[in-house]
Design brief:
glycoprotein; 13% strand; Glycosyltransferase; 625 residues; Endoglucanase; four-stranded antiparallel sheet; polysaccharide degradation; Immunoglobulin-like
Length: 625
């Protein structure tokens, strides 16, 4: 269950492994560094995850053969057919808000990267994944002002560890209506249906029109009967609470309806409500199933890129949306005057201790689409800490995807089934219990916990494509089924990656021009090193009789110019190091993969842990802009 309760674990520090383990770790990392990532293969597996999460009567041609039919009477006891849709994560609740967000993001991927999906022969599978969700939403929208938004209860569901095919927990369904409003989930479902309508329009016009009809009705319902959905639906509040309120979903739905229809009334809505609803006021550093502001701001920036002067009546407001979009993007790129998204020492964006990868995937998506918007308009992103070219934005997005696929301190793929080293103890009921086709006997609630949840054995069913919650803030990951904050995959985490994989698969090589060091690097203004190093020890502890220290070194650019190439010599280093990238030469390091320049006055942070004295760091080569 991808709940968002604010539980912050005690800070952990990475201990130096034994010598043999360190050699293996470095060998794995070197292997990953040298190999190219198969983005097309990752895209294929990403879609398999959505198949594994399907609820209802499964098609005969399904690719995930260990899954069977399940929840075939959802809604029947309350007089409605709610069979179908998706299970949210490692459990069997169908939560409407994150499911709708996932369908929106799958559809946005098609809208932006349709050609790439066609070229990769994946479009039909993405549309199938979208349709599995939209068919369910259409059934759940039983009246103009009523929407069924949840099936199953998280509390009772969590008392059982069983396969979906054996489900014995209550399948109570919950709805919103005029007396129990839920503008967030109604708005997000309207957005999902509008985005899907645009995705389907060239291929199934009648279905597209049906989705638009429901989208428009749901938007009117959400806007007319305003109210927080988790006030009306207490069963969702513990697991998917609405922290950002419903105003972002109202703007988000209107923006998608404008994208799908071109009807000016929706552009007028986002313009007139921009300030009151926070669209041009919220400057955020996350994009998620709850907080849509960054996605909204990027989507409305697209209107400026595409329409330019023809959007003149709304240009001033759209530019305010764009300014907030670029705040988010610059924060991701670490160029936002200190107001940046946190990074792990190994180079991963880190937003939350709970299911952090969902924020990585959503951010990577926005970075990728905005890079393409800029490239098509021949523009650049102007951040407080420097100008960023489209290719550099895409390079950073690629670095996040590469981290997910294995270019990280552990050398582990955080996408299940990708590569040879990935999580094998996923917090997922279906993956952890033998398939009904392998073991036909029913597995009961407590039996599931005793035999499978607490088992140290690897999952009998590989949950291909599942993006787990990911490592902690220090790049550490415990492959433990009980570690639900980090080991559980979600629809919301996987969905944005679909479009990103499609885009990267179409241009797998990083064609961003590489910088080469100048034969004679110019001297810094102070006549010495271009960097001012400040070394601190931030923690110390004893393990097996050895004292270990966590060293943090900040290297400030004092040469007066942006440094575009840097080579450091780091000697007497016995532990792993973060914040720089190794080269093939002994003791030589360069900028980390997510950085291409260090602006004047900016700082590079290097972290390493080892016993004994500190390592010695010196500048060997550098080049300035």
């Amino acid at each position: 269950m991808a709940a968002t309760m604010n539980k912050t674990p005690a800070t952990t520090f990475l201990l130096i492994p034994a010598a043999a383990s360190l050699v293996l770790l470095l060998a794995a990392a070197a292997s990953v560094e040298a190999s190219a990532f198969d983005y097309a293969g990752a895209f294929d597996k990403c879609l398999l995850f959505f198949e594994a999460q399907r609820s209802g009567k499964l098609p005969a041609d399904r690719l995930v053969r260990w899954r069977g039919d399940s929840a075939l009477t959802d809604g029947f006891s309350q007089g409605v057919d709610l069979v179908g849709g998706y299970y949210d994560s490692g459990d069997h609740v169908k939560f409407g808000l994150p499911m709708a967000y996932a369908v929106t993001m799958l559809s946005w991927g098609v809208v932006e990267f349709e050609k790439e999906m066609v070229d990769g022969n994946k479009l039909h599978r993405v549309l199938d994944a979208i349709r599995w969700g939209t068919n369910y939403f259409v059934k759940a929208h039983t009246q103009h002002n009523a929407l069924w938004v949840q099936v199953g209860d998280g509390d009772s569901d969590h008392l059982c560890w069983e396969r979906a095919e054996d489900m014995s927990t209550p399948r109570t369904a919950f709805k919103i209506d005029i007396n129990n409003p839920g503008s967030e989930v109604a708005g997000e479902t309207a957005a999902a249906l509008a985005a899907a309508a645009k995705a389907f329009k060239p291929y199934d016009r009648m279905y597209s029109d049906l989705l638009l009809l429901h989208s428009k009705q749901l938007f009117t319902f959400a806007d007319t009967f305003r109210g927080k959905y988790d006030d009306s639906l207490q069963s969702a509040k513990k697991f998917y609470p609405s922290a950002s309120g419903y105003q972002d979903e109202l703007l988000w739905a209107a923006a998608w309806l404008y994208e799908a229809t071109g009807d000016e009334q929706y552009l007028r809505y986002v313009s007139q409500n921009a300030e009151a609803f926070g669209g041009t006021g919220w400057a955020v550093t996350e994009f998620s199933w709850d907080n849509k502001y960054a996605g909204l701001q990027v989507l409305l920036s697209k209107v400026l890129f595409e329409q330019g002067g023809s959007a003149a009546g709304y240009a001033d407001t759209l530019k305010q949306y764009q300014a907030k979009a670029e705040f988010f993007l610059c924060a991701c790129l670490q160029k936002n005057n200190g107001h940046n998204v946190k990074m792990t020492p190994g180079g991963l964006m880190y937003v939350s201790d709970w299911s952090n990868m969902q924020y990585v995937s959503s951010s990577a998506f926005l970075l990728t689409v905005y890079a393409d918007y800029l490239a098509e308009s021949r523009g650049t992103l102007r951040c407080p800490d420097g100008e960023v070219k489209p290719a550099e934005i895409l390079r950073f997005a690629r670095s996040q995807v590469d981290y997910v696929l294995g270019k990280n301190p552990k050398g582990m793929s955080y996408m299940v089934g990708y590569g040879s080293y990935y999580p094998t103890h996923v917090h997922h009921r279906g993956a952890s219990i033998p398939s009904i086709y392998a073991m036909n006997a029913t597995v009961g609630c407590m039996e599931g916990f005793d035999k499978y949840y607490n088992s140290k054995n690897a999952d009998p069913n590989v949950l291909h494509g599942a993006l787990v919650g990911g490592p902690d803030a220090n790049d550490a990951y415990d492959d433990d089924r009980c570690n639900y904050q980090h080991a559980e995959p979600t629809l919301a985490g996987n969905a944005p990656m679909s479009g990103v994989f499609a885009r990267l698969a179409a241009s797998p090589a990083d064609n961003t021009p590489e910088y080469t060091p100048a034969p004679n690097a110019p001297s810094p203004s102070n006549g010495g090193s271009p960097l001012e190093f400040v070394h601190t020890v931030t923690n110390t502890w004893k393990a097996n009789g050895v004292d270990y220290y966590r060293h943090v070194v900040t290297a400030k650019n004092t040469c007066g110019h942006a440094i575009t190439y840097l080579k450091l010599q780091i000697k007497e280093l016995s532990g792993e190091i973060y914040g720089v990238s190794r080269t093939n030469a002994k003791d030589m390091y360069e900028f980390p993969s997510w950085m291409t320049r260090l602006d004047a006055g900016a700082q590079l942070t290097i972290v390493y842990i080892q016993g004994g004295p500190a390592a010695k760091i010196a500048v060997v080569e550098y080049k300035t802009a």
